[in-house]
Design a protein that fits this description.
GMP Synthetase, Chain A, domain 3; 4 domains; five-stranded antiparallel β-sheet; elongated
């Protein structure tokens, strides 16, 4: 989605709002919620919901109480209460839909420790906020160098200034526990502000930084995914994917979250499949499962000692043989079941360019001229013979 000002310029190039994620309509930001109740009026005597959703850097959102009864709309820059001082953010949602979001995230309306909105941000607040945001990239370079000099096993991924520039939050990732007390002293001495260190997971780091996945689209964690569930290699095994860490890992270095999307469907489909550990006993021999096809419902078995010869049967046929084995009965062989499946290996390709041949643009071969030349040569050879006959 794009905001209303992201139209095309005069030269045909994208114009863009050039607000770097702070456009007024707030429709080209990460994790944006569409307010489908905005055009609906409240019944008589019902007061509007006095909570507001405010977004900060990299999609961080919090809910604040509008105790001053300010007239706020989506895109307004407001000064909000913080633990120390005040913060500056942008209103992303108002009205009854905020109540729904708070209920979904299990945030109580009667919490006494909730923060409130002070006022709409003044020009002075916005100037201080903008100056602080401009310092973040240069601070990140210095902070990473300090961590390297102290030989700390950590990575500083992002820095976020508070709206009044009184505090800077350093987001970092680490495999193990890190003692960064000396690092905080260097930060406070260099940057001359209150320092807060906050550890985030590798998936949260990828969601904050964003990027393009192997599918060609934006990362799910940075656009719509909010809860990060654990992903195990068993999800790839159930879907019969090759356990290649280069293909299964995302930009965060962990297994891709999309491995969980279709896992439930695969598990439901596998309920009709017999376990691959179960052997099929026939009069010809014992068969072991070699391969399964979840989409077609087929299974391949091979006799012990004849591992090169695979026999294709359906899941219903495999379950039937297992039931016979439970009743201490054995079928003659797997061939009588495999003979019922006629596999058509011929592949028919559709002509996507119509009935024309792919060689229709090639220069035609002049075969007729060659035939004519051969005929003329034969005629020339025959002419002197006819003259000799006439002379005789």
């Amino acid at each position: 989605m794009a905001c209303g000002t992201c139209s095309t310029g005069k030269d045909g190039q994208p114009k863009g709002c050039k607000n770097n994620g702070t456009c007024g309509t707030d429709s080209c930001n990460k994790l944006t919620v569409f307010d489908w109740l905005a055009n609906m009026s409240l019944p008589d005597g019902v007061e509007p919901f006095n909570w507001v959703e405010v977004r900060f850097k990299n999609g961080r959102k919090h809910y604040y109480k509008n105790t001053e009864n300010l007239t706020l709309s989506i895109g307004d820059v407001v000064a909000t209460q913080a633990e120390y001082g005040h913060d500056v953010g942008m209103v992303t949602l108002t009205g009854e839909l905020v109540r729904v979001q708070m209920k979904r995230k299990k945030i109580s309306e009667n919490d006494p420790e909730t923060f409130k909105i002070y006022r709409k941000a003044t020009q002075k607040d916005i100037d201080i906020w903008s100056e602080a945001r401009d310092k973040e990239e240069s601070m990140k370079v210095k902070a990473r160098q300090f961590a390297i000099d102290l030989k700390l096993q950590m990575k500083i991924s992002d820095i976020e200034y508070q709206g009044d520039a009184s505090k800077a939050t350093f987001y970092y990732t680490a495999e193990e526990r890190v003692d960064f007390r000396e690092l905080i002293k260097l930060f406070a001495k260099e940057f001359k502000t209150r320092i807060e260190m906050r550890q985030v997971g590798f998936r949260q780091e990828a969601s904050r930084l964003g990027g393009i996945g192997s599918c060609g689209r934006e990362l799910c964690c940075s656009t719509w995914l909010t809860d990060f569930r654990s992903v195990s290699t068993s999800a790839a095994r159930y879907q019969q994917l090759s356990l290649n860490p280069l293909k299964l890992a995302g930009q965060c270095g962990k297994l891709k979250c999309c491995l969980n999307y279709e896992l439930d469907t695969y598990l439901d489909a596998l309920k009709s499949f017999p376990k691959t550990e179960i052997k099929l006993y026939t009069e010809k021999g014992t068969a072991v499962c070699q391969k399964t096809d979840i989409f077609k419902g087929h299974m391949w078995y091979a006799y012990e000692g004849e591992w090169m010869n695979w026999h294709l049967i359906t899941t219903d046929q495999a379950n039937e043989i297992i039931e016979l084995n439970k009743n201490r009965k054995k079928p003659a062989s797997l061939e009588e079941y495999a003979a019922e499946l006629i596999v058509d290996t011929k592949t028919e390709y559709e002509n996507v360019v119509g009935q024309d041949s792919l060689t229709r643009f090639d220069s035609p071969k002049h075969r007729n001229k060659r035939k004519n030349n051969k005929g003329n040569k034969n005629k020339r050879r025959r002419k002197p013979q006819s003259k000799k006959n006439n002379a005789k």
